[in-house]
Amino acid sequence: MGEKLKIGVLGSGSGSNAQSIIDAIEAGALDAEVVCVLTDVEDARILERAATHGIPGRFISAAPFKTKLDGAAETEYIRVLQAHGATCVVLAGFMRIVKPAMLKAFPQRVLNIHPALLPAFPGMASWKQALEYGTRVAGCTVHFVDEGTDTGPIIVQRCVPVEPGDTPETLHARIQIEEHLAYPEALRLLAAGRLNVVGRRVEVREGEVSSGQ
Ligand code: GRF
User: Fold this and answer.
1) Which domain holds residue 166?
2) 180 is known as an active-site residue
3) Nearest Cα to 101, choosing from 134, 67, 75, 64?
4) How many helices (H) and strands (E) does the chain have?
5) Mutate to test the pocket of ligand 1, among 90, 176, 187 (most ligand atoms within 8 A of CB)
6) CA–CA distance from 26 to each of 2, 7, 23 (Å)?
7) pLDDT tens-digit map of 86-142
């Protein structure tokens, strides 16, 4: 077995996915360490969650851009991640598109979670897109990040039913329950060295039965 997976989390909001990863580690269900939590939103709740668990957290402005992480800001994110010894970057509600320099610094080690069953409904508020489209199932996807938007090789997907009377809020809440299982599961596979990217497909090598639900 290689070295323990050292995770740098990037998030812009509540951080419930970061919390699920921290909880899985603390419960002994994921052999990894969260080495830092970085955010582009100064008062993001994700920073409080990090502090509660004694994890270094830091706001790094990504100005002047609104939706991408580029230029000097990207260089600073990479520098801080490397200074904390991160070997893997977990995007957990990070509202910016990461650019090639980040992917080059962490090759096949940048993961994202998307609240839809990709390749359906990439982009923003995808649970609303699914509801408006009228799909009967919705879900979430954990994938490796590549140079496209929500296009990288898929690691784990989990689905939920769309119920009569669902609002965007109730559907997103149901999807988030599955997200909190999907991200630790994907990271368990990565930490165990069981993921092999072949073209755009991820092959999962046989291994011990997962300790997740
Ligand atoms: C999640 O729904 C995730 O799929 C999307 O942004 C949301 C982040 O939620 N990328 P949280 O900050 O982890 O609670």
Assistant:
1) 114-206
2) no
3) 75
4) 6, 11
5) 176
6) 20, 14, 5
7) 999 999 999 999 999 999 999 999 999 999 999 999 999 999 999 999 999 999 999
Q: Whose CA is nearest to atom 8 of ligand 1?
A: 93
Residue to substitute in 12, 17, 111 for testing ligand 1 pocket (most ligand atoms within 8 angstroms of CB):
17
Closest of 26, 65, 15 to residue 180, by C-alpha: 15
Which of 82, 107, 132 is the endpoint of a domain? 107
Q: What are 206's two structure tokens?
A: 């046989």
pTM above 0.85, yes or no: yes
* Ligand 1 neighbour 114 (Cβ under 6 A): yes
14 lines ligand 1 (CB under 6 A): yes
Supply φ then ψ for residue 104, to 5 degrees. Answer: -75, -35
| Same domain membership, residue 6 and residue 96 | yes
Three-class secondary structure assignment of 106-129 = CCCCEEEEECCCCCCCCCCCHHHH
DSSP annotation string for 11-23: ESS--HHHHHHHH
Which CATH number is 186's domain given?
3.40.50.170
- Reported as a single tens digit per residue, the pLDDT across 134-144 is 999 999 999 99
Inside any domain, residue 213: no
Asked if 153 and 197 count as a contact pair (C-beta separation under 8 A), the reply is yes
Q: Is 122 in the pocket of ligand 1 (CB under 6 A)?
A: no
